[in-house]
Amino acid sequence: MDRTKSDGVFDAKTDLSRLLERVSKGETIRINRRGINIAKLIPPYLGEKEESDQLVQQIREIRKRAILGKISIRELIDEGRRH
What is the mean pLDDT, run by run of 10 residues, along the chain of 83 residues? Predict the structure, then answer.
């Protein structure tokens, strides 16, 4: 079930408490100005999930670019344990 609704900037300014109540019940609210989305109110657990998913993706991208040369991950771990 899609729980995303859109509201205009005017509604957000004049009725923020009502919007926050809806968000606290699991709804995602997009705020738009002249038909263009400019903000999104989301329940905290959704935001945390998105943030962690983005972080995992960023780590994977960094790992793809990491060049170790002739040394293996295991050798790096073992070297780190010696110090």
Answer: 66 87 90 88 74 84 79 83 79
Domain 4-82 fold is YefM-like fold (3.40.1620)
CB 30 within 8 A of CB 5: yes
In this prediction the pTM is 0.47
Q: Is 29 exposed, middle or buried (0-12, 13-18, 19+ CB in 10 A)?
A: buried
Instruction: Give the three-state DSSP class for 72.
Output: coil
Contact (Cβ atoms closer than 8 angstroms) between residue 30 and residue 42: no
Nearest to 8 by CA among 24, 19, 23: 19
> What residue spans define the domains of the chain?
4-82
Point out which residues pair with 41 in neighbouring strands: 29
